[in-house]
Amino acid sequence: MELLDVRTPPEFNNAHVPGARLIPLDDLNVEAYLQHHEPGKPFYVLCQAGPRAAKAIERFERYGCFDGVLVEGGTQAWIDARLPVQRGQSNILPLMRQVQIVVGTLSAIGSVLALLVSRWFAVVPLFLGCGLLFAGVTGTCGMAILLARMPWNRSQSECFESCCTSERL
User: I need a labelling partner for 79 at 20 to 30 A (CA). Which of 48, 68, 87, 95 fits?
Assistant: First the structure.
C-alpha cells in the first residue's frame, strides 16, 4: 500500500502516519510520479484534514489517473482515532497556527491604525476577514498557501530532500 502525504515538511515532521511518503503539494510532479506508478494499483493521499489531498487527487485525475484514494479527515482523523503516528522534532509551528498568528497580528495592527491614524486602515482587517470567509467556504486558504512557500516551511526534513527534490515527484 502506498500512502502519500502532501503536507509541508514541518507538518510531516511533527506527526505522520508510519510509512507515509512526503511529497508536498507544491512539489508534486504528477508526470514524474506516474512514470513509477503501476496503473490500476490504488494509492492513498492525505494531508492534515483533507483539502490539499483532494487537490492532489484532482491533479492526478487531470492526467487520467483515477487510482488516488482520499484518506478522509487526513492525519488529524488518524491521530484522533488513536492510530500510531511517528513524531519528529520540529521547531516550526504548524501551518494553521502560523496563519492564525499572521491574520491576528495584521488584523490588530490594522484596527489600531484605523482608530489612531486613518479609517482607511480598516480595509486591512476587512480584507483578512474576507480571506478567512473564503477559506472557510472553499477549503482554500491563500495565506496558508503563501506561508507554505516560506523558507522556514521548506527543506526542513531529510525525507523531503530525498523524496522530492531529486526526482521532483
Answer: 68
